[in-house]
Automatic annotation (TrEMBL):
One of its GO terms (molecular function) is fumarate transmembrane transporter activity. The lineage of its organism: Bacteria, Bacillati, Actinomycetota, Actinomycetes, Pseudonocardiales. SUPFAM superfamilies: Proton glutamate symport protein. This is Aerobic C4-dicarboxylate transport protein. It holds the Pfam family SDF. It is a multi-pass membrane protein. It comes from Crossiella cryophila. It is found in: Cell membrane.
Amino acid sequence: MLATTAAGGRTRKPIYRHLYFWVLVSIAAGILVGILFPVQAAGLKWLADLFINLVKMVIAPTIFCTIVVGIAGLGNLAKAGGLALRTIMYFIVMTLIALVIGMIVVNILQPGVGLDMQPSAADLKAGADAQKKAAGTEGFTGFILHLVPESFVGAFTSGQLIQVLVLAVLVAVAIGMMGERGAKALQALDTVAKIMFGVIKIVMYAAPVGAFGGMAYTIGTNGAKVLTSLAFLMIAFYLTCVLFIILVLGGVAKLAGFNIFKFIRFIKDELLIVLGTSSSEAVLPRMLVKLEAAGAQKSVVGLTIPTGYSFNLDGTCIYLTMGALFIAQATGAHLPLWTQIGLLLFMLLSSKGAAGVTGAGLVTLAASLVAFQNVIPEASIGIALIAGIDRFMSEARALTNLIGNGVGTLVVARWQNALDREQLDRVLRDPSLVDMDELMKAENGAAEDKKEKAGSSS
């Protein structure tokens, strides 16, 4: 378990030395640039894309090594299977709750009824692109085939976290079957993971730049028009996400023995990065380190967080049911309750693997509507409308996904008796006890020590 910095052994950092301060400043600057110079701001998206690509560059090897070390570290396959089963069951239940809440809210508020269907040319193109990507899906069989990469290297180059997860589980099981002979391989993978965390520490210095570019592009491209034309749907979606976090995740957190608001304060740096980049994937490596520092065992964090990025996308699930039923209402398609339930069950499957990448939610929504085009024949127009505000909704999706995965990890850790409650209480009371710079240094230092020991023994 990672150690936090000593409470009385260091001076608190001034605010300008914290990452969240510069990310917040960058977001504010991006909003101003987007409002004052919209044409120029529209060309700044590459800054956000560059930062996200830098993070994605190391995500696959980091997750692979972390999962393998985590599962193998459990000591036996039965224990690993129990952890995996509890994790998946929790994710399925939370996914169903999120989908049902989205369906209930959109049926009550009916934001699509009476809407003037006039998407712009740019929105029509974005909607068509999403449908084109969605057309490549093949339902249940396609989902199953998509779990397995075409090659070992393909799992790392495809950008699909779920394939990395499957490969990592197989490798972990194989190493576990080797017994003592697999110890050296496990040690090597642990060292690689620590090297990747060192790279991530360097990459995070670019987070404010990415947040600035992403926010400037969002405001400059969409402007006030998008903020007003479909405001009802956006407000309903944001409020639903907030209620889900406070009531559902808050209730789950309370049952697990911690406060949801204190937890949100604890991960504020990561939330601000997600707010600026609209991608929860950008902070996945930091969440691995931070939740371990909060008291969760490394083996639990290493399996639960990466799995959650494919199987526990609460914000995306709320978006899927609200978006699909909004489009049905806007196009005048009547969906009986049983049809809505069928759509919900289909989305329970299609939402898996829609990792925290910007825009993945829109493609998943389009894929679901393609499967139900016989009852929503004019879905393409509705998708074009959603595309116009998807960037704003993407932020709420990503934030909800991140909080949901963090809470889920601590809950599963508690179920496994793998959570240091005293440690969790300490860091939630005083988040400054967890200094990410110090933790990254500790990780790199541990890796160097292992190398020295290996060199001396040989």
